[in-house]
Design brief:
Elements (H helix, E strand, L loop, with lengths): L7 H25 L2 H40 L1 H19 L7
């Protein structure tokens, strides 16, 4: 189960490597006039940026989950009340209403 976790630092590093590789391909394609190599470089750059952004979002998500877990552990009754209220409100919004004829 621990193997399923993502290492954000590793993802950011690999994203930076992809971006650097993309810059090199883009420049080489521009110098040689090879538009396919240039396009491949731009794709690598975008993939690297996406990988870095994903790592940032993953870190933020882990922080939010930890905050939620701590809140539930510290205030279980309040958490239960919030869950009950949200469930009731959700059910009320989805429940079909009878129309009086």
């Amino acid at each position: 189960m621990a193997d399923d976790k993502i290492n954000p630092i590793k993802e950011k590093l690999e994203g930076a490597v992809d971006q650097a590789k993309g810059h090199v391909k883009d420049a080489a394609g521009g110098l040689t006039g090879d538009s396919s190599l240039q396009a491949e470089g731009k794709v690598d750059q975008l993939a690297g940026m996406a990988r870095e952004e994903f790592a940032d979002l993953y870190e933020e998500g882990e922080g939010l989950i930890e905050k939620g877990t701590t809140f539930i552990r510290d205030k279980p009754l309040l958490s239960l009340g919030i869950a009950w209220f949200a469930g009731t409100l959700f059910g009320w919004c989805l429940m079909p209403r009878r129309r009086k004829a």
